[in-house]
Every structure is written in C-alpha cells, then in structure tokens.
Amino acid sequence: MSSLRSFSGPRIKYTPEESPYEAITVDKLTPII
Which DSSP string do the residues of 1-33 spell out, in sequence order? Predict the structure, then answer.
C-alpha cells in the first residue's frame, strides 16, 4: 500500500526498493493528477 505514499510527491524515487514497477506507474499518474 505504498502507492499512497508515492502520491505524496517525490517519495517515489526514495522508495525504489519496494516496487520499481509501481514507481513507474505512479510517476506517469502524478503528472496527470
């Protein structure tokens, strides 16, 4: 459930060990939001 944290901001790059795939998907969703 770290997806919610990624939505917070640049924390996605700080948590690449959790799920690199999730980070990529969220990264693409962040600009849309």
Answer: -THHHHHHSTHHHH-TTT-HHHHHHHHHHHHH-
Q: What pLDDT score does 17 carry?
A: 57
The letter for the amino acid at 29 is L
Its pTM stands at 0.20
Low-confidence ranges of the chain (pLDDT < 70): 1-33
Measured between alpha carbons, how far is 9 from 23 in angstroms, rounded to an integer? Answer: 11
